Description:
The chain is built from 9 helices and 7 strands; from the N terminus they run αααβαβαββαβααβαβ. The protein is 37% helix and 21% strand. It has one domain: Rossmann fold, CATH 3.40.50.
Amino acid sequence: MDTGEYNNIFYSDMFGKKSEKYYRVQKRKMKIVIGLFSEHKNGKILDIGCGDGVITSMLKNFTKANAYGIDISKSAVLKAKKRGIKAKVVDIDRDKFPFKKNTFDAIFCGDVIEHVYDTERLLENVNRALKPGGYVVISVPNIASWYNRGFLLLGYMPIWIESSMKTYTGNPLIKDGMGHIHAFTKRSLIELLHLKGFYVESSMGSPVFADGTRTEWKEKLWNNVDSFFAKKTTLASTLIIKARKKK
Length: 247
């Protein structure tokens, strides 16, 4: 199974029956991301990896902009279109980027870049599609999160990166992989953005909330601890970077 086929299956599943779980654990990230578009009014925005269009529609309503989206999952794109998003099916690793130069005022790329083989090509396309002075907001799992540092000290595989596409090995506490083929720290992502013609305006961390499968006290404990460490960006579960295209 190649990456394109795997991602199509993975994201169709993610934004199918599992979508409620995804939005539950990512609700703090979604709030932070929407806030980073506070300066933006009207114009055009693009959501790369728009999924079923839930976050895209939030951005659309918040900014009053024309909202576009691309995603590898056909079923997810159909749902996004029903929410009023101008969405189309695109495999970022295989297909030509379907937008012209200087098209968008802002772009959101949420939890996507870690799934893409050619991250540099993706960022080059983002830079090209943005208008001069436009910005991109990127969220990505942090391989250097507080618990991953502990896992590595114990000789366990850190979360957010896998040794195999189909199974997860190396950490008895984790049963399923996430299909990630690249890993990022705050430093590595910022340096990559600088190399691709951006300057970083802000960086922050976000927790990943419990998914509702454990007892109430365990979930409350996890949410509080992860929220505490998210105050230090380099230790957070999720990194959120806002970077502007150099003029």
